[in-house]
Amino acid sequence: MKIKLGLIYGGKSAEHNVSLQTALAVINALDMNKFDIHPIYISENGEWVRGQALEAPVKEVQTLKLQDGGTTVSPVSLNSELFPATVEEHGKIDVIFPLLHGPNGEDGTVQGLLELLNIPYVGNGVLASAAGMDKVVMKNLFAQAGLAQANYVAYIKSDFEKDPEAAYNQVEESLGYPCFVKPANLGSSVGINKCKDRQSLENAFKEAFEFDRKIIIEEGIIGREIEIAVIGNDQPVCSVVGEIAPKKEFYDYKAKYEDGDTDLIIPGNITEEEYETIKEMAIKSFKAIDGSGLVRADFFLTEDGKALINEVNTMPGFTPFSMFPMLWKQTGLEYPQLIEKLVDLALERYEQKQQIKHTF
């Protein structure tokens, strides 16, 4: 029996187009002898559109918008057993792979929906997804777990607007320059700026607040950017490490997705001792957010060999040329097998949850 795999992609997020690229890559890597692939597109305004099961690989991203043959549906139609009043035209889905990046998808919202629908899904649950998306909450959890990281401060827009000068002064006194200003709840380096003086700091605050009501400012760290991939549930395992070597000042959105102006060095050239430290910290960060399925953990490695965790990404870039799949390929797990492994982990976690008692 083939597994009926639903792929949710798109999303009401600034990372909508990144999600489409991810979906295209996953669809074309899946073994259609093992999976019936059911595309579920979320438009930029939040409309859900479900297509017929795919019978062949998809050539163009535009096709994934399901403008021909797609049916606008309610999300609850994914489980007509729980919601029998809904119209179910396509048959029950066995497991969902949310290929969503950013808010309204990677942040626990869709994961919460799938929990309510009692459908197995790939990746992190509600708590880990929400904590992994909110950089401030994430870093607070890392601090409590004793993980070394850069100094940071955070602001809510309404509080900042009461006294902007005080905020700028605090950044300069606590962190100094250079520093990085980021929206708290966004990925793919959207809205991030490196600041070297007061003027660039003010401009960065303004841009970051366009993408979120909460922002985080981190001290600049002189060090190499090292990344490691983690998969698993209760017993996570790590890949080899990779190194980001941007030819610009930092690894921004354009460097990631547009001009390719970055070297990805896999495996990264670090010592065995440094690798063991980073691996241990990555697993500790995974458990700190109660992760499941997958994360990519990002670190700074200073000249004196000290590792500082920067963040974890609960739905990292997932095309064959993204760091997460490339790290696993170098570790011995090819892209199609990686996808299958994540589906297996999703079903494993679902079965574990079904053993939990809900009455007493």
TrEMBL record:
Q: Give the record's pathway.
A: Cell wall biogenesis; peptidoglycan biosynthesis; Glycan biosynthesis
Name of this chain's protein: D-alanine--D-alanine ligase
Q: What does the record give under GO molecular function?
A: ATP binding; D-alanine-D-alanine ligase activity; metal ion binding
> Which principal EC class is assigned to this enzyme?
ligase
What's the gene? Answer: ddl
Annotated active site: 15, 188, 322
Q: What is the lineage of its organism?
A: Bacteria, Bacillati, Bacillota, Bacilli, Bacillales
Name the InterPro entries on file.
ATP-grasp, ATP_grasp_subdomain_1, D-Ala_lig_Van_CS, D_ala_D_ala, Dala_Dala_lig_C, Dala_Dala_lig_N, PreATP-grasp_dom_sf
Where along the chain is Mg(2+) 2 bound? Answer: 311, 313
Question: What cofactor(s) does the depicted protein rely on?
Answer: Mn(2+); Mg(2+)
Q: What is its biological role?
A: Cell wall formation.
**Enzyme Commission number(s) of this protein:** 6.3.2.4
Q: Which GO terms describe its cellular component?
A: cytosol
Q: Which PANTHER family match?
A: D-ALANINE--D-ALANINE LIGASE (PTHR23132), D-ALANINE--D-ALANINE LIGASE A (PTHR23132:SF25)
Reaction equation(s) it catalyzes: 2 D-alanine + ATP = D-alanyl-D-alanine + ADP + phosphate + H(+)
**Which GO BP terms, alphabetically?**
cell wall organization; peptidoglycan biosynthetic process; regulation of cell shape
Instruction: Report the Pfam families cross-referenced here.
Output: Dala_Dala_lig_C, Dala_Dala_lig_N
